[in-house]
Design a protein that fits this description.
The chain is 31% helix and 33% strand. The protein is of the alpha+beta class.
Length: 222
Amino acid sequence: MTVNVLLFAAARDAAGASELKELLLPGATTADLLDRLCARLPALAELRPRLAVAVNQSYVRAPQQLSDGDEVALLPPISGGGSLLTQDPLDLQAMIRQAHGTCDGAVVTFLGTVRDLSEGRQVVSMEYHAYEAMAAKELEAARQETLDRYPVSQVLVAHRIGHLQLCEASVAIVVTSPHRAEAFDACRFAIDRIKARVPVWKREHFPDGDSGWVQGWYPELE
């Protein structure tokens, strides 16, 4: 059987490709697939302890048996994420206008922006990459979970991908509610949920022309 392997961020760099076709024996699992790839790609083997695996756009925690035609994504630790993925600048005021209703006495917003310093090193710009199909699915799941958990009127989330300059917004969240306490709580929950699950990666660019991936984690998969 043949499976389609997608690689992102540092995993893509380690493999030297963003997509691979792998021929496996019937009954093979995700662990068998990783064994095969890591034996052939030493740089990927170094990343293996920190990789998460998704099969057909759903995370898997334990080895899972694969079927012919499955899509398997190898995901380095995520470093950020957002129900709209776009390469266009985020328009916070438009999101507020869309979300705000006459019953809402509170509008809470969050903007995540590109800063100029990371662990003591100067940053000149940031590049955002995403597993777009899965990211869109997880963003909407985070938005819906926030609505289900908190008595708020509306939650809107957006995440930008591509190359961003300093001070540009990468993530925007708008929460509207009759009361402020619930809106603040929901906004914090939404950004924490997005950062924990949405497969988006950040590459920092430095003044000397060097660049590097921001390290992250999968707290919910530990």
